[in-house]
Amino acid sequence: xxxxxxxxxxxxxxxxxxxxxxxxxxxxxxxxxxxxxxxxxxxxxxxxxxxxxxxxxxxxxxxxxxxxxxxxxxxxxxxxxxxxxxxxxxxxxxxxxxxxxxxxxxxxxxxxxxxx
Length: 116
Description:
Elements lengths: L2 H16 L7 H24 L9 H7 L3 H20 L6 H17 L5
């Protein structure tokens, strides 16, 4: 995918997520947020390295290997929210707000001038 395609996918997922009723739709929120996070990371990596991974498996390890420890940690937290919401539905209370904060961190990294 090109950078523009990742931006378009991000916009589509963001629009779909905005239609959800949270916390009733927390599973869908976590899934769409995970997709948004992937596209944000693809944008940030594309801007920094001129290429990106086409799937999410091993993405945290790939980011860590390039020194993006904080970003990899945020990605890991989002993976945990996704798994927790999908399989367990535990602690939905502030989950959506926490997910939003993590996405904000990824968006700031993704769109920031290249500071790696």
